[in-house]
Design a protein that fits this description.
629 residues, alpha+beta, Rossmann fold, eight-stranded mixed beta sheet, five-stranded antiparallel beta sheet, 10 helices, hydrolase, WD40, protease, Peptidase_S9_cat
């Protein structure tokens, strides 16, 4: 795989199923290098596997398809070519789609009413005089009064709050009605089975600026009868009504007595009576981390995905709690699920394809698509290292073709509470195709191995993570065919933090390093990051006197290997000052150091940045390793 081959990698959205269960529709999106954008359309496929997928729309970028309950209409979101995303409706029996919304900042999250006559959706509403045709630099100043005012991949949001709307898409001139009001963000809307209520997530409580908690709220479709359903003690997302309408399901984290203790904690599935009452957790807090993928409450329980040692299983969770049934497992990742008329359809990735639709019907599993089966990617080789305390460290090697010995890259994921896993990872494929053996894994601090595994590193992140990462590297080297004398280390975000830490404390193991979008100095990150005000105390500890000791920047005077820093100018998660401070400190000491800055990009550059920037990033990384390994 070459850098430009990212154009071959597709991304599947969440599927939608026709009410009779006979067809599924899914959005398929790919990078378009010529347009320097992302292109995609909607594809229709029968759920019995009798035919392959057929393209339904041709973009420029169509996503978020939703069948109407009567099956006659399909709502979706269309964006691209510089246009804001807007809602469209397509007759499923044939015909052209028509535009339903013209929101100034775009619209998304369409949800049909049960009678198939109205759509609820979410859109940001700009303050008067902002985000219009004028020059942004000439807008009035923003008055900031709280911690939460800017978000990565979005920017300032306190002057463009997200609200719930309802629209009749069949009117001659559809005119959306704003349902929610106030200086709050609202989102993730759902419609009750009887059409009498809308549910959504909002943080409207008095302490909302100093906590990360939020609530599920309900109101009538005209905005009347607004009331809170949960108790402001959880961080919640994704509310969905149960089929009988008596309860709401949602994802949630416990947030501790201060309302901001959510780092390295497992998200669970919860339920709460719509009429009022205590919320109840349905999944075991220690065992199951639910990554908040699209899910489906059905009569028999709730279909959800759960991380499991680099995989993501499909589970059916009983409404009364207890042991979930495992419906899809093995070395693959279920990323979304939908259900209708006894048929379940899931978007499933594995080590050979970025994602295919899989149907569960009549007791059988049927693969419905083959969007990525011909990529010919290099395989994942599973390994396990042993940490100094005897703990097993799980990971993989992606080997180049040929006998070797191959130069080695230790690649470290961000988070830290996330996981590498069983999917086609463009970075591992590009580097391995260029001749480097890529070692990657899930040391303690990662998700998917139980909550104790994730929280092991709290308060001593660098030292404890390094022990596991080096154990994994040693296990990879012991398999043979790898050249330990030509080893590099790289990672992004928390992976960049650990890259700098390893270069400083274990530099003798590595010939060169690449740190991307990293947190390097805990003190300044606390003030400059969109999450710094709560994240640092939760992960690195309340003892601020120890923050300097835990910061990689403090130990940069020990780094003497060539060091490349990659960062984005609009990264609000790990702001660019984190890169600049490290760059200046290394340059002042005479270390061979370069910094690559990407304009207009945020923290998600490597995953969803401009395709031209993603290619340029890959080329710079391969150039660096070519010079130093």
């Amino acid at each position: 795989m070459k850098p430009a081959d990212i154009s071959l990698l597709h991304a599947l959205g969440a599927p939608t199923i026709s009410p009779d269960g006979k067809h599924a529709i899914v959005a398929v999106t790919r990078p378009d290098l010529e347009a320097d954008d992302y292109r995609g359309g909607l594809w229709l496929v029968p759920t019995d596997g009798s035919a392959g997928p057929r393209r339904l729309t041709r973009g420029p970028r169509d996503t978020e398809p939703v069948y109407s309950p009567d099956g006659a209409w399909l709502a979706f979101v269309r964006a691209g070519d510089g246009a804001k995303p807007q809602l469209y409706v397509l007759p499923t029996g044939g015909g052209e789609p028509w535009k339903v919304t013209d929101q100034p900042l775009g619209a998304g999250e369409p949800v049909w009413s049960p009678d198939s006559r109205r759509l609820a959706f979410v859109a940001r509403v700009p303050e008067e005089g902002r985000y219009g045709e004028g020059e942004p630099d000439k807008e009035p100043p923003r008055r900031i009064t709280g911690f939460q005012f800017r978000r990565d991949n979005l920017g300032f949001f306190i002057d463009r709050r997200a609200h719930v709307f309802v629209v009749d898409p069949f009117a001659d001139e559809p005119s959306p009605v704003q349902v929610t009001e106030g200086d709050y963000d609202h989102g993730e809307v759902a419609w009750s089975p009887d059409g009498e209520l809308l549910a959504f997530v909002a943080a409207r409580h008095d302490e909302r600026d100093t906590t990360v908690t939020s609530d599920v709220w309900v109101c009538a479709p005209d905005g009347s009868g607004l009331r809170r359903v949960t108790g402001s003690d959880l961080s919640v997302s994704g509310p969905r009504f149960t089929p009988d309408g008596a309860a709401l399901c949602f994802f949630g984290y416990t947030a501790g007595p201060e309302g901001r203790r959510v780092v390295c904690r497992n998200a669970g599935l919860w339920t709460v009576p719509v009429a009022g009452g205590a919320a109840r957790r349905l999944t075991d807090e220690e065992r199951f981390h639910l990554p908040e993928d699209p899910y489906a409450p059905i009569d028999a329980g709730v279909l959800v995905t759960a991380e499991n040692r680099g995989a993501k299983d499909l589970l059916l969770v009983p409404y009364e709690g207890g042991e979930p049934a495992v419906l899809i497992s093995g070395p693959r990742e279920v990323n979304a699920v939908a259900h209708a008329a006894g048929v379940t359809v899931a978007a499933v990735a594995d080590s050979r394809t970025p994602g295919e639709l899989v149907a569960l019907r009549d007791g059988k599993e049927i693969t419905l698509t083959s969007f990525g089966r011909d990529l010919g990617v290099l395989p994942l080789e599973e390994i396990t290292g042993t940490a100094p305390d005897g703990y097993p460290v799980h990971g993989w090697i992606v080997r180049p073709e040929g006998e070797g010995p191959h130069p080695v890259l230790l690649m470290i994921h961000g988070g830290p509470f996330t996981q590498y896993g069983w999917h086609v990872f463009d970075e591992a494929q590009v580097y391995a195709s260029a001749g480097y053996a890529v070692v990657m894994g899930n040391p303690r601090g990662s998700s998917g191995y139980g909550q104790a595994h994730g929280r092991h590193i709290i308060g001593d992140v660098g030292r404890l993570s390094a022990a596991d990462l080096l154990a994994l590297l040693d296990a990879a080297l012991a398999t043979g065919g790898l050249d330990a004398s030509r080893t590099g280390v790289l990672g992004g975000s928390h992976g960049g933090f650990m890259t700098t830490w390893l270069a400083a404390h274990h530099g003798e193991r590595f010939k060169a390093a690449i740190s991307e979008r990293a947190l390097n100095a805990i003190d300044s990150f606390t003030g400059s990051s969109d999450i710094g005000w709560f994240f640092t105390r939760d992960l690195y500890g309340e003892d601020t006197a120890r923050w300097a000791e835990q910061s990689p920047l403090t130990h940069a005077d020990k780094i003497d290997i060539p060091f490349l820093i990659i960062h984005s100018e609009h990264d609000w998660r790990c702001p660019v000052e984190q890169a600049q401070r490290l760059f200046v400190k290394l340059r002042m000491r005479g270390v061979e150091t370069e910094m690559l800055l990407f304009p207009g990009e945020g923290h998600e550059l490597s995953r969803s940045g401009l395709p031209s920037h993603r290619v340029a990033r890959f080329e710079a990384i391969l150039d660096w390793w070519g010079r130093h390994l």
